[in-house]
Design a protein that fits this description.
Length: 377
């Protein structure tokens, strides 16, 4: 091991992240994964997919083509522009701008929109893409305790009048805990203090609402959301992300959003199935109802605290070594249910994160429950 290897290895150990590894798979499926290990191929039940409606099982013949430069330099595909218009109309917003991923959508939006005299207030548990966007922003930013509206109001009282604009950043369904933000109560604060709201609907788009429009729409609050993001890699089972907002936003992003300006455009081959997937998603009421029933069943079976359902079901183990061992034991017995370990979550908050989708059956959850109980005895 040379000097650089030693330095990197030491920093990895000190970061507490050295226990996380990539999982080699041969074939992906929403319900089953085919793993590649030393013994050969192995099929396991998949409880780590965000393909909430199982739409990845629907194939589409697309022409493989790339656009080897940014949209500003190489031209803007008419099909992409039309798809943005369809998404904006579907989500009842003035504009939609597609980027390479949900991560770049969040990072690009937050890094360019808020200015030096602005303030960003973000829930403490927002996604890493939002945190990175705030770090790159010239604006001042602070984080309030998770879903704590009293703490948020305290920050608003102390800062709202001293900044040109205040942006509040939240997720509708949080990716690690699967809990839902009290959106209606937040909007009461919005009316009182006049901030702008940025909502990440990554884990709720397709799952809730009329034709899958998301949690805000299901609560009849969509019109009050200023800016919204979600990705295509959850319920749509594709690649890409989108930023939605007023008509003026798109032109602003074209001129200021660095991932849009300086990065190669998403290949149309990754997006060509998007119109079909969106159509399927709108018709997936039966899948949404089945998913809801599965998630409520899982929470009841695992005796989790009562809360609004979501497709993310966290099983708190706390100790990261025990959590990793449990995940490895489950994998050996035919269940892919990855451990969520620090620093993704705080110390002593390690957990198994069950991602349930409409391809699952109650029997799958029963099998997983029985296996977990066996190892936890």
């Amino acid at each position: 091991m040379n000097e650089l290897d030693q330095l990197i290895s030491t920093r990895l150990r000190e970061s507490g992240s050295s226990h996380r590894k990539l999982m080699p798979i041969r074939q992906y499926g929403s319900r089953y994964l085919q793993l590649q290990n030393k013994q050969g191929l192995k099929e396991v039940l998949n409880f780590a997919s965000n393909d909430y409606l199982g739409l990845s099982a629907i194939s589409a013949d697309v022409e493989l083509q790339a656009q080897p430069a940014s949209r500003l330099l190489s031209g803007n595909l008419v099909a992409l522009e039309q798809m943005e218009g369809e998404l904006a109309e579907f989500m009842q917003k003035g504009s939609a701008t597609i980027l390479q991923s949900g991560f770049t959508a969040n990072m690009g939006l937050l890094s360019c929109l808020a200015q030096k005299d602005d303030l960003i207030l973000a829930d403490r548990l927002v996604h890493a893409s939002m945190i990175d966007g705030m770090r790159l922003s010239p604006a001042q930013w602070k984080r309030f305790r998770h879903a704590d509206l009293d703490h948020l109001e305290t920050l608003l009282k102390g800062h709202v009048k001293s900044h040109a604009a205040v942006w509040v950043v939240i997720e509708s369904v949080f990716s690690m805990d699967g809990d839902i933000f009290p959106l209606a109560a937040l909007l009461e604060l919005k009316h009182k203090y006049g901030f702008y709201l940025i909502l990440d609907e990554a884990h709720s788009f397709g799952v809730y609402g009329d034709e899958g429009r998301g949690l805000a729409q299901s609560m009849d609050l969509l019109a009050e959301i200023d800016l919204m993001t979600f990705n295509f890699s959850k319920a749509l089972a594709l690649q890409g992300g989108v930023i939605l907002g007023p008509a003026s936003l798109k032109n602003f992003l074209i001129n200021h959003c660095r991932p849009l300006i300086y990065s190669t455009a998403t290949p149309w081959s990754h997006l060509a199935a998007l119109p079909m997937r969106l159509a399927e998603l709108r018709l997936a009421d039966a899948q949404r109802q089945h998913l809801k029933e599965l998630c409520e069943y899982a929470r009841e079976l695992f005796k989790l605290p009562e809360q609004s359902w979501s497709p993310i079901v966290p099983l708190m183990i706390k100790d990261h070594v025990k959590t990793q061992q449990l995940a490895e034991n489950l994998l050996e017995h035919g269940f892919y249910c990855p451990a969520i370990l620090p620093p993704t979550v705080s110390k002593n908050e390690a957990r198994l994160r069950l991602s349930i989708n409409a391809m699952h059956q109650k029997g799958d959850i029963d099998q997983l429950y029985n296996c977990i109980q066996l190892f936890l005895k």
